[in-house]
Write a structure and sequence with these properties.
- The structure is a single chain.
- Helix content is 14%, strand content 36%.
- The chain is mainly beta.
- The chain has one domain.
- It has a 10-stranded antiparallel beta sheet with strand order 1-2-3-4-5-6-7-8-9-10.
């Protein structure tokens, strides 16, 4: 018989906190539920990290809490912008856990302690400091490019390449086992390079050219990594569907073999259930 090694009381506390607080991480089910691009709520066009003004003022208080904000006039009090051109944000997650039921050994652990800063000198340009923790993203972003109705975007710097669903849980398969987690052996997240993509509401596609050597390692070889992802969002009657695929090719130098992997992903939402 399988028995969990997490005490009931800490688990209950964690569940209560998750139901009463708004997590600032990327939640792909909302993009599936509303058939909208992640960049509607996030400064990062591929999702995650700092929210846009819409995401911080409206979505965070209308969709994420157990009880949504009823007085719309109070939305004006939620002001993440220091000025017309500067916006700040933060998210924090902490947990209490024990490794075994047989001892009293237990500890507190900070999962996230991120501070975000975005400087927007123009309507289309953004200088983004993604966080001050181990998952730092720092890039320059140019949006509103004319291709596909102004949905084109170009970013240069250090970022997490778009592959599959972007879950904040670093132990999920698409993050840890494929090398997109800072805790994984490959340690390639985030990475330095350039990415170009199109991000309309009902579909998106991106292509990134990066070092492939990781955030904490110096790029010691001339080989580069290609990561591409495409997503489509559509409806069948009252069922909203999201389907996509990703491909990654990484040459890591003569001492290590090349990495090639690809895979599809899908999401569905019906009547609020994703």
């Amino acid at each position: 018989m399988f028995r969990p090694n997490v005490p009931i009381v800490p688990l209950g506390v964690a569940l209560a906190l998750s139901l009463t607080t708004a997590d600032l991480s990327a939640l792909p089910q909302f993009a599936t539920e509303y058939k909208q691009s992640c960049q509607l709520c996030h400064q990062n066009p591929t999702g995650g990290g700092m929210r846009t003004l819409y995401g911080a003022q409206f979505f965070s208080y209308m969709e994420l809490p157990v009880k949504s904000l009823e007085d719309f006039t109070k939305l004006e009090d939620i002001q993440p912008k220091l000025s017309k051109n500067i916006q700040i944000g933060a998210d924090f997650r902490s947990m209490f856990f024990t490794m075994t039921r047989d001892t009293n050994a237990a500890t507190f652990f900070t999962m996230e302690d991120n501070l975000y800063l975005a400087f927007m000198p123009t309507e289309r340009a953004t200088l983004y400091l993604g966080s001050l923790s181990y998952q730092q993203e720092v890039f320059a972003l140019l949006q509103g490019l004319s291709a596909f109705g102004g949905s084109g975007a170009l970013r240069v710097g250090k970022f997490v390449p778009a592959y599959g669903w972007r879950f904040e849980d670093h132990k999920s398969f698409v993050r840890d086992m494929l090398g997109f987690s800072p805790q994984s052996h490959n340690r390639i997240a985030p990475d330095n390079g350039v990415e170009f993509g199109f991000y309309p509401m009902e579909w998106e596609a991106s292509l990134a050219l990066t070092n492939g050597a990781g955030a904490t390692m110096f790029d010691s070889n001339d080989d580069k990594t290609i990561t591409t992802r495409a997503i489509g969002r559509f409806s069948v009657s009252s069922l909203n569907l999201t389907a996509g695929g990703s491909y990654r090719y990484a040459e890591l130098g003569r001492a290590r073999p090349a990495l090639r992997y690809f895979g599809p992903f899908i999401g569905a939402n019906w009547s609020g259930f994703s």
